[in-house]
Write a structure and sequence with these properties.
The protein is an alpha/beta fold. It has a single domain, classed as Mannitol-specific EII, Chain A (3-Layer(aba) Sandwich). The chain is built from five helices and six strands; from the N terminus they run βααβββββααα. The chain has helices spanning 21-34, 41-54, 110-123, 127-138, 143-159, and strands at residues 12-16, 58-60, 63-64, 67-69, 77-87, 97-105. Strands 1, 2, 3, 4, 5 and 6 form a six-stranded mixed beta sheet that branches. The protein is globular. It starts with 11 loop residues before the first strand and ends with a helix.
Length: 160
């Protein structure tokens, strides 16, 4: 399974204006809730915030991967946002974030959750890969284009 199996164009929003990290996290949760993937919106948001309190999921280079395992979701799901303006996120490198990918998995399916995180980490493993990833998402003109770009990058990473 890869990221495109749990992400759809309907759960991608581009150039979103959010004021700050809490606003971004809430916005990502709203996306998956609107898509019908949540059983309990407040519990999902609590799980993401709790995970974020342990260690920032701002992995650096303008990318954040907020994630949590929770029974507040029907099944593994994802949402992706690009920000109209980078926001402070307490990232590991201290840089603001302009791409955020939310991953939510069921508590009972830790293996799948880790597999999705691993696939995503391979997409940004090298400077070249990370730059392709950023360009593919930030330059996309529509959620469909961003999804297709991500699918192509995922397929290429799987072929390596």
């Amino acid at each position: 399974m890869n990221l495109c199996d749990v992400l759809t164009p309907a759960t991608i929003q581009l150039r979103v204006r959010v004021p700050d990290k809490p606003g971004l996290l809430a916005y990502l949760i709203e996306i998956v809730d609107a898509h019908g993937d949540l059983l309990d919106r407040q519990e999902a948001l609590r799980a993401v915030r709790e995970r974020e309190e342990r260690l920032s999921t701002g992995i650096g280079h303008g990318i954040a991967v907020p994630h949590a395992k929770t029974d507040a979701v029907r099944t593994a799901t994802a949402a992706l946002v690009t920000c109209s303006e980078p926001i402070e996120y307490d990232s590991l490198d201290g840089e603001p974030v302009d791409i955020a990918i939310l991953l939510l998995g069921r508590t009972s399916d830790v293996r799948l959750h880790l597999q999705l995180l691993g696939k995503l980490s391979r997409l940004v493993a090298t400077d070249t890969d990370r730059e392709q990833f950023r360009r593919a998402l930030l330059m996309a003109n529509s959620p469909d284009e961003a999804y297709e770009n991500l699918r192509q990058l995922s397929d290429a990473a799987d072929a390596k």
